[in-house]
Amino acid sequence: MCDFSGRLVAWMDRELPDNEAADVERHVRDCLECRRRVDAYEKVSRAFVAYFDAAIGEKRRRRLPRWLPVLLSGAAAAAVLLLVFQPANIEQIPVQPRVADAAPAVVLETETAPRPVKKVHRRHVIAPTKTPSTNWALAEPSIQIAIPVEAIFPPGAVPEGITFIADLSMAADGSVQGLRLQQ
Amino acid sequence: MSGDSLSFPLPLTRFEADSCEATNLYRELRKPLLRYLVCLGLSADEAQDVVQDAFLSLHRHLASDGSQENIRSWLFRVAHNGARNRQHSYDRRFGKPLDPDLDSIADGATPEQVVLEKEKLRRLGKAILLLTESERECLLLRAGGLRYREIAEVLEIPTSTVGDTVDRAIKKLAEKCNV
Prior knowledge:
heterodimer, A: alpha+beta, 4-stranded mixed β-sheet, elongated, B: Rna Polymerase Sigma Factor, Chain: A, 8 helices
């Protein structure tokens, strides 16, 4: 058995120190046996997740989660922010901490916008996948951001089915100056 | 849209900031937490209850200025302990295989692919039963996206032990499933 076989799973999981990871990566590139092992470990890891996802899916259909209606009403009451600003200014606009907090809920409705990065750490794969472009130049001069109402208001503060259009005023330096909600 | 409008000043209050943080964590971790609890042997309903309790604890934790460091492993530890407190359910975790909805796995595949996929998952289900408690817990937490250090915090074992356990468990499954 290959000397590197004991470190393949840790390498896949990005748990090795950088220098060790580089050694394993070089080795995996050259060693067919280790590549096959990594491939098998990847497959079994994915199957493991799929198996338990199916287990959850089966049981979910038997009884809906008791707070599902609350979640649905929250989604229905999602507030939509419409920001209009010049594409030329986009690169100079610093990201506000508050906007960053709401990042997972942000939907950028432009084809060239980068996708939000999931927080779950990535594993090594043999064939590196293409990373999305980080070019911030937008094709459209406007961005729609859908923010669930529960992210803005305390629970129960907004009745079910209510939506808002929010106009966000921004200064030239990108800082947020005010927010006006229209029902 | 009518002309009704209201204005309020920024920045967000502490409550709203905490709500944002809790909402983001809920979106990110609800499913991994549910998966972890169901796989520990809890029923879907019990798992939903434990996850709900865990997020209520999170809300209280954030509201009382609790530390936001390692919040992911904090949530998993609360859920893990919640599962252990339901000892009856937790004890039946190795009693019988889970009952996954295999039909939902291979949507859109050809009939041959569906048969192969189901067979592979059945083998995997049997292999999972052969894992030790610790191996199973480590793999489930890993599937939830936790780093080895975070898994070590949840299970209160050394990080090096987590690495060895994950390695052993993955190799065992790969061997038994012959993937």
